[in-house]
Amino acid sequence: MLGSSNIAEGLRGYLTKYDCSAADINPIGGINKTDIKAFLIYFSEQVKLPVLREIAEANPSAELRPSDESNTYSSQLDEDEMGMTYAELDEYGKLRKIDRQGPLSMFEHLLIYWADRKLSAREIGEKVKNFFRYYAINRHKSTVLTPSYHCENYGTDDNRFDLRQFLYDVKWEHQFEEIDKLIAQIENEESKDCRDGPHQL
After folding, report:
1. Which of 80, 135, 66, 148 is nearest to 106 (CA)?
2. What are the residue ranges spanned by the domains of the chain?
3. Beta-bridge partner residues of 14
4. pLDDT 10s digit of each residue in the chain, 201 long?
5. Exposed (0-12), middle (13-18) or buried (19+): which is 4, by Cβ within 10 Å?
6. 3-state secondary structure of 12
7. Helix axes 50-57, 33-46, angle to 10 degrees
8. Beta strand residue intervals within 59-128, DSSP E
9. CATH classification code of 7-62+84-196
């Protein structure tokens, strides 16, 4: 039996334990969503099979709820339900595993890396905390992930590829408190700059 969860869904824990994780092998379990889409589009052109492009361009959905009234799309979209995009999950995965970053160092990194996204420090902080909360809550699912071919060096199946613990304190109290202190400091500085107004030369 083949599984169909990608690496981002494994990292986020967006799968049902012993359900879609109970296959014999998962061909795409170690591939991120961006690469899967790119491959489907490329392959659709090579073999002249347009349906593969349609699959790649469809909104990702678990399709466990009924479609809308027009029956054109599912009311259950993965990224909405996860509270994060697949592109963000790929970024979190790389920072967590390759760069060995925890919540605080990831927050500091993304403050700079996401500067062009025009997100506030508080929004970035919430995104990082949201990821680590779900990562900790669902980490136990990694122990039973279907074996897959590893295409990324930030795999999630801890029993074969990632030897860290699988039980975490989901509150991350110290790390989240430090993030909140930095956010308060940044907001305080921004507020001070606004009050001072433009500087005369």
Report:
1. 135
2. 7-62+84-196
3. none
4. 888 888 888 888 888 888 767 888 888 888 888 888 999 999 999 999 999 999 888 887 666 666 666 555 556 777 888 889 999 999 999 999 889 999 999 999 999 999 999 999 999 999 999 999 999 998 888 878 888 877 787 876 555 555 667 788 899 999 999 999 999 999 999 887 776 665 444
5. middle
6. helix
7. 160
8. none
9. 3.40.50.620
d(CA 145, CA 28): 12
C-alpha angle 38/43/49, rounded to 5°? Answer: 125
Q: Is 130 exposed, middle or buried (0-12, 13-18, 19+ CB in 10 A)?
A: middle
Q: Is 167 left (phi over 0), alpha (psi -120 to 50) or beta?
A: beta
Under 8 Å CB-to-CB from 27, ≥6 apart: which residues?
Answer: 2, 3, 148, 149
User: 144 to each of 30, 162, 167, 182, how far by Cα in Å?
Assistant: 14, 13, 14, 37
Q: Closest by alpha carbon to 76, among 89, 55, 60, 88?
A: 60
Torsion angles phi and psi, residue 28, rounded to 5: -110, 15
For the entire predicted model, the pTM comes to 0.82
